[in-house]
Amino acid sequence: MAQSVAGPEIERLIQLLARLPGLGPRSARRAALHLIKKRETLLNPLSEAMRVANERIVVCSSCGNVDTSDPCTICRDHRRDASIIVVVEDVSDLWALERSGAINALYHVLGGVLSPLDGVRPEHLNLDRLVERATQSGVAEVILALSATVDGQTTAHYITDLLNHLPVKVTKLAHGVPVGGELDYLDEGTLSAAIRQRTTF
Ligand code: ZN
């Protein structure tokens, strides 16, 4: 094992940074050193921002989004088209769709997809609340923005059956879009096109 170049406090900072997505041990060391050098302008405000965020983070009881208020900023936004609910696997998909500006609707975060292999069953997902929301008057369409994987499609069929008795249209994103924690990697034009070219499920 390589020798430590710094005291345990700094080593701990490096180890924690290395757990972030996209950062390996080498870039974590670089990031740690950068933070230490920019103590006043970066390390102090960052640790304060993390402390405040950590204290206030809540999961929205309506849609499953993470925010610092419940209901979340999106659910409270009355300028949105509340007749459309976009169903996504993960909060990262919601953020990607929002960033693309592809649609000005409400969302529903499932928290995963059904997966017999991984033991993910309907009761593990945020499905009851989705049915409740879709039952509310004024909801006309549910867009399933789920991955093109077998599990994603199984989940899409399951949800379509769940909503079958309701007077809502169920649609899915244009074919061939890799989604489900992967929406983030798509450029905004592709995302917008996938929403525009959605088809009835
Ligand atoms: Zn919400």
From TrEMBL:
InterPro entries: DNA_Rcmb_RecR, Rcmb_RecR, Rcmb_RecR_Znf, TOPRIM_dom, TOPRIM_RecR. May play a role in DNA repair. It seems to be involved in an RecBC-independent recombinational process of DNA repair. It may act with RecF and RecO. SUPFAM superfamilies: Recombination protein RecR. The keyword Iron-sulfur does not apply. CDD domains: TOPRIM_recR. This is Recombination protein RecR. Signal peptide: none annotated. Residues 83-178 form the Toprim domain. Coiled coil: none annotated. Belongs to the RecR family. It comes from the Bacteria. Keywords: DNA damage, DNA recombination, DNA repair, Metal-binding, Zinc, Zinc-finger. A zinc finger (C4-type) spans 60-75.
